[in-house]
Design goal:
heterodimer, A: mainly alpha, about 80% helix, globular, B: 2 domains
């Protein structure tokens, strides 16, 4: 086994996202103990803006205006909002571990789209790892 | 056959997320990650206002709940930045699969903080999830092979 530092460093953003999304998936369960899903989403949007605004000023209040990119982002954000609302309603009704793991199977949808539209391919080891990851999600949901 | 009440909203969320996770990969071709993050936050805020209109603009306030929800927004946005960077400089397959293992952490937090019981099957899932993550790392990024 050889260690490729360039590839390993490339993993860091993914690992950071993994940890942060773990927190992101768990914390709403606590917030939903005292507030309904629509209120939690509203405050979540406030939290989003608290990060986005410093970035906006860091970019010197100049955003690239690409119509296609903006439309895709708007569409994606709208879908995400509905997905999160459904996720919060589910979280109110059941256990965190089961619901988070069931909804985490979304890469199956994403990977299928990536293979169809982006022609991304996987080698056999990676395909095996994907199957293992999906099996893990299946076991966690049980 | 009884369908548990949380299943339908979970499946709806699963399908919608599957679609929404794909779109940033296309958007990031024309917008740098930080620009994309700002646009996402703005559009998410607009979408949440449209959603609130359906609830009569009624927003509950509980200090602890609000603080937790704001934290959710903060960690979620930073996670999004990390994910966008990951898929911009790596492959979507690689970034998506690694980050898809976040239920392992959420399950552990639910176990330790909420006292949700972990079955033997779920424990096996955590071990398998960690093994698959290590395997993905060892296999390397497939970008160079594309």
């Amino acid at each position: 086994m050889t260690i490729n530092l360039k590839n390993d460093l490339r993993l860091l953003p993914s690992l950071a996202a993994l940890v942060l999304w773990g927190l992101w998936a768990f914390l709403p369960k606590l917030a939903l103990q005292t507030m309904p899903p629509q209120s939690v989403i509203f405050y979540e949007a406030v939290g989003n803006m608290l990060v986005a605004m410093p970035i906006f000023f860091y970019l010197k209040r100049r955003l690239i205006k690409n119509k296609k990119g903006i439309l895709l982002t708007a569409f994606s954000s709208g879908i995400s909002m509905v997905a999160i609302l459904a996720f919060y309603y589910a979280l109110r009704l059941g256990p965190v571990a089961t619901i988070v793991t069931v909804t985490a199977m979304y890469p199956i949808v994403g990977l299928t789209l990536a293979r169809i539209f982006l022609k991304e391919s996987m080698n056999s080891t990676q395909l095996f790892a994907v199957v293992m990851a999906m099996a893990a999600v299946g076991l966690l949901a049980g | 056959m009884t369908i548990v009440p949380w299943l339908l909203p979970s499946i709806l969320s699963l399908v919608l997320w599957g679609g929404s996770i794909f779109l940033p990969k296309l958007a990031v071709r024309t917008l740098p990650p930080l620009h994309l993050t700002v646009y996402s936050a703005v559009f998410f805020a607009l979408a949440s206002l449209i959603m609130l209109a359906f609830y009569g603009f009624q927003v509950d306030f509980d200090p602890r709940g609000a603080l937790l929800a704001i934290t959710v927004g903060i960690v979620g946005t930073i996670a999004q930045v990390m994910f966008i960077i990951a898929i911009r400089y790596g492959s979507m397959t690689y970034g998506t699969v690694v980050t898809s293992l976040y239920p392992v952490l959420a399950t552990l937090l639910a176990f330790f903080i909420l006292g949700e019981k972990l079955s033997g099957r779920q424990a096996a899932g955590i071990v398998l999830g960690i093994c698959s993550l290590i395997l993905i790392v060892v296999a390397g990024d497939d970008k160079s092979k594309e």
